[in-house]
Amino acid sequence: MTIRIVPVTTLDPAPEPAALARAWNEVFVAATVATMGDDHDAWSMASRRARESSTTWSHRYLAAVAEVDGADRVVAAAELMLPLRDNLELAMVDVAVDPDHRRRGVGTRALEHVTNLAVAAARTTLVAETAYPNGGLDHGEGFLDRHGFRVGQTMLRNDLSVEVGSVEAGSDDEVPATPGYVVETSTDDTLDAWLEDRAHLQRRMSTDSPVGDLEFHEEEWDTARLRAQRETTRQSGRRAFESVARHLGSGRLVAFTQLQVPTAEPVLAYQQDTLVLREHRGHGLGAAVKAANLRALRTAFPQARTLRTWNAEENGPMLAVNEALGYRTTAVLREWQKRLA
Ligand SMILES: CC(C)(COP(=O)(O)OP(=O)(O)OC[C@H]1O[C@@H](n2cnc3c(N)ncnc32)[C@H](O)[C@@H]1OP(=O)(O)O)[C@@H](O)C(=O)NCCC(=O)NCCS
Question: Quick check: is 141 in a domain?
Answer without folding.
Answer: no
